[in-house]
What does this fold into?
Amino acid sequence: KQEVTQIPAALSVPEGENLVLNCSFTDSAIYNLQWFRQDPGKGLTSLLLIQSSQREQTSGRLNASLDKSSGRSTLYIAASQPGDSATYLCAVLVSNYKLTFGKGTLLTVNP
Amino acid sequence: NAGVTQTPKFRVLKTGQSMTLLCAQDMNHEYMYWYRQDPGMGLRLIHYSVGEGTTAKGEVPDGYNVSRLKKQNFLLGLESAAPSQTSVYFCASSYEQNQPQHFGDGTRLSIL
It folds into this structure.
């Protein structure tokens, strides 16, 4: 059974700092890996999707990497801003159309 | 451009009552999904659909039924609500299996 772990569970940083969120998964047989953002009381917003054949994806200040063989992904956020404060979720797409989610990292960026 | 719309946003039910959650998407997506999100458990897939007229079970389907009579709508039904079904329910859709899923804002459901 695929399991997704996100470390740390919570992170607090000062504005302007570069930071890395970590995601690990137990089974390398995935179709893709996705990073989402969830604001309080809201749904999930897709940030980046990395296909299994890719190593990284970039969007603005965000960069996500994927190492399938080691079962790891990282989300790098450059020059963090208070507006980046949210819960970040990692999910892997396995067979049967199933996304398996981690429990998320709660990020707080302090002004 | 609404994206994925869920109704209602909040609901309180008594044990044994029934209700239907509605999900509508205007992106012409083939795939639609229902998840529940519980503290400490993360998001778990309840049911999904790969096209109009099709449905399939996800990770936690017991106590729920679904229907996809129209491509843009995916309904989640609780026939006899139980306190264990207290949760936040999210609907999502995607163009293809290997494409990003777009989520609604959720329905917060409490079963007393």
The two ends of chain A are 41 Å apart (CA to CA).
